[in-house]
Amino acid sequence: MTEKTTEELEQLRDLIDGVDQQLLHLLRKRLDLVAQVGAVKHGAGLPIYAPEREAAMLAKRREEAEAIGIQPQLIEDVLRRLMRESYLNEKDVGFKQVREDLGKVVIVGGNGQLGRLFGQMLNLSGYQVVSLDKDDWHQSETLFADAGLVLVTVPIGVTCDVIREKLSNLPADCILADLTSIKSAPLDAMMTVHSGPVVGLHPMFGPDVGSFAKQVVVVCHGRGEGKYQWLLEQIKIWGARIVEAEAERHDKAMQLVQAMRHFCTFVYGLNLCREGVDMENLLLFSSPIYRLELAMVGRLFAQNPELYADIIFAQRDSFNVISDYLANFTDALKVIENQDRDTFIKQFNEVSQWFGELAPQFRNESRSMLQSVNDLKSH
Ligand SMILES: C=C(O[C@@H]1C=C(C(=O)O)C=C[C@H]1O)C(=O)O
Fold first, then answer.
1. Could you give the ipTM of this predicted complex?
2. Is the pTM of this model over 0.80?
3. Measured between alpha carbons, how far is 311 from 300 in angstroms, rounded to an integer?
4. What is the CATH number of the domain that holds 89?
5. Fewer CB within 10 Å, N side or C side of the chain?
6. Domain end point (choices 230, 245, 260)
């Protein structure tokens, strides 16, 4: 580099630093305004997530960007990232308490990760929350005496036993709810032991989400809906979407969404491990999609094996669903064995047609994910 080039670059880079610093101050200002919005919502009991406002704002900013020669997608990406930050900041203000005369909330399994998350959200909404874990059963009678809600979030394998053996003496009008990732069996158990309001919930996300905004919570109604409607309203204020489902339909979907998904990921990791793959080498040659795939697989093995065993072993029928997959895999493998390129292309087109409009939609969604993966690289 010549001295002139170095000097020119330095000057321009100083100017860019100045602009970035202005951006920082603007971000500070935006975060402060969002915090004020949070306080107003808290007072009025409005949900943290306002999809119409977001859509209108994004459309307007995209238009304005285009008018001054900026790619609309750039401002959309930036704003979406900022809105994610908003949800976290609004959360800190707390939430309106929908039901003020509830009495205690007892979280059975309250020291687990999901139990802690729900405890925190209920606390931020003004409820008195107590946790009851394995070693605390001797206190259960006093804790349950004035409980308005008992929320069960213990490992799937012991959920029904805990419900049957420990929760048969709740106050008559106490709401009994669970957060288990299967719904039929726990719901049946809760209906059997308790004659008051009963509801099954399944948060479709892990405990590491920073906020409930845009997350889905599945609800399987048990009995006395009017008595626990406030709880669903409370969850909506946290920003989540409530999806109502029959327990059987939910459980069937979980065979694919959870058992099959996690089992395939497990086998993928098992295969890499048994083949003794040189990961350094793979990472060096990774395309963005492969890097993303490795991230998805690798993250499984950074978590608790018990949790995944619970999910995969939760329903016997998952075995059949996974066996079907194996049969399809074996069939498809024959296509390679026979070097039958035409059949491969024919089958590819069939599946592509079957996906229909979703295929291009998924391509667009994955494009921005892949770009984010690339952005994370530092060399
Ligand atoms: C700040 C608000 O809350 C959320 C965050 C938004 C933002 O950061 O611009 C917009 C809409 C809401 O989902 C709001 O409602 O205006």
1. 0.94
2. yes
3. 13
4. 1.20.59
5. C
6. 245
